[in-house]
Every structure is written in structure tokens, then in C-alpha cells.
């Protein structure tokens, strides 16, 4: 029974780490600020740099806030379907925060086991954490547009994510290349956290060997 519980903990920690990488990438606004210039979003969208940054910052604040506030872009019109979509995106990010909280408790259980000399749960996290990003990263590098569409079909039960630029011009300031850069950042952060866990695993393993 305990083995099953620890396997569940390993899985929860893995998902929580990926969730943490996604939330961190979302809050790292500088990557978008760079893309505003690199992708020439003002020219692409027809909006000024100030308008673009203002509306983008609003989207991030809206998605990360737990306040029960109505969606309303500062200076862009939006459709009913667009509003619903961003509400759904917000709910997804709220779910990631909950997953991170549960994952933290699972991580404490795994570290407790490691202190007692049982490092297998931590090793299982390392295995899953390297496999899952690779499964996603390879198709993403080959055909990001197809992965992007598949992701939305899995995450959303409607097609409101397919924006009409006339009704929801915000899509013009969110080019696909930007989401590609976000995805790369998520994978990179996941790898960094994997390396940190690997170091922790080796420390605990060395400790077990010295005690045996």
C-alpha cells in the first residue's frame, strides 16, 4: 500500500514541477517584451507598443489573479466567445496552482523517505520528469503548429480558442511564434529543475552508501 502511495506521490511531484515551469514561464513577461520587438508585433497588429504591453499585462494579471473580476481588456474589443476562452484559460492556471500545492505535500513525503534512506520515489520523479518533456519536445520541434492545435483540442471542449481577428483583435498581438518561445522556456525550466533534483538524489544516495 505504501509503495502505491509513494508512486502516486512521484507522479504528483512530476506534474507539479511541470505546472511550476508553466506558471513561471507565464509570469516571465520579459520574453514577450523581447518578442514585441523581435517579431515586430506593432507592425503586425496595428497597435502601438504601449497598447500591446498594456493589454498583454492585463492578460497575465487576469490569468494569475484569484480575484473574481470580470474580463475586460483595457483598449481592445472582444467577443463573448473570446471572453469565455480567457476565463477557461484562467481556470486552467488556477488548477496549476492547486496542483503545485498538492505536489508540494507529495514532495515533502518523498524527501522524508529520502532522509530515511529510501530514494526510489525521488528516482521515479527523475525518470518521469525527463520522459514527459522529451515526449512533448520532440513533436514540438518538428511541427509546433500541429502540437499547438492538438493541445487546444485536448484542453478545451469548444473551439472558442480559434479567434476571429475582427471580433477578437487580441489574437494579433499573440503570434504563434511567441507561444513557441513560451513552450521552449517551459521545457528549459523543467530540465533545470530536473538537474536540481538529480543533484539532490545523488546527495541522498551518497548519504545512504556512507551509512551502509
Automatic annotation (TrEMBL):
Q: Which domain of life is it from?
A: Bacteria
Which key words tag this protein in UniProt?
A: Membrane, Signal, Transmembrane, Transmembrane helix
Q: Which Pfam families match?
A: Lit (PF07314)
Q: Which residues cross the membrane?
A: 96-115, 127-151, 183-204
Signal peptide positions are 1-21
The protein's name? TIGR01906 family protein
Which InterPro entries does the record associate with it?
Lit
Amino acid at each position: 500500500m505504501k509503495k502505491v502511495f509513494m508512486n502516486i506521490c512521484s507522479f504528483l511531484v512530476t506534474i507539479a514541477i511541470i505546472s511550476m515551469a508553466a506558471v513561471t514561464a507565464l509570469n516571465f513577461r520579459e520574453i514577450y517584451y523581447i518578442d514585441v520587438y523581435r517579431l515586430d508585433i506593432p507592425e503586425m497588429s496595428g497597435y502601438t507598443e504601449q497598447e500591446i504591453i498594456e493589454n498583454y499585462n492585463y492578460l497575465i494579471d487576469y490569468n494569475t489573479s484569484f480575484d473574481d473580476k470580470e474580463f475586460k481588456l483595457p483598449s481592445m474589443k472582444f467577443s463573448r466567445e473570446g471572453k469565455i476562452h480567457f476565463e477557461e484559460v484562467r481556470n486552467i492556471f488556477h488548477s496549476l496552482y492547486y496542483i503545485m500545492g498538492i505536489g508540494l505535500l507529495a514532495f515533502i513525503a518523498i524527501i522524508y523517505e529520502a532522509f530515511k534512506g529510501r530514494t526510489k520515489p525521488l528516482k521515479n520523479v527523475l525518470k518521469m520528469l525527463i520522459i514527459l518533456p522529451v515526449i512533448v519536445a520532440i513533436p514540438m520541434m518538428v511541427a509546433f503548429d500541429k502540437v499547438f492545435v492538438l493541445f487546444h483540442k485536448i484542453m478545451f471542449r469548444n473551439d472558442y480558442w480559434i479567434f476571429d481577428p475582427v471580433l477578437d483583435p487580441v489574437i494579433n498581438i499573440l503570434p504563434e511564434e511567441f507561444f513557441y518561445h513560451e513552450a521552449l522556456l517551459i521545457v528549459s525550466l523543467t530540465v533545470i529543475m530536473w538537474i536540481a533534483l538529480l543533484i539532490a538524489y545523488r546527495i541522498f544516495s551518497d548519504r545512504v552508501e556512507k551509512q551502509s
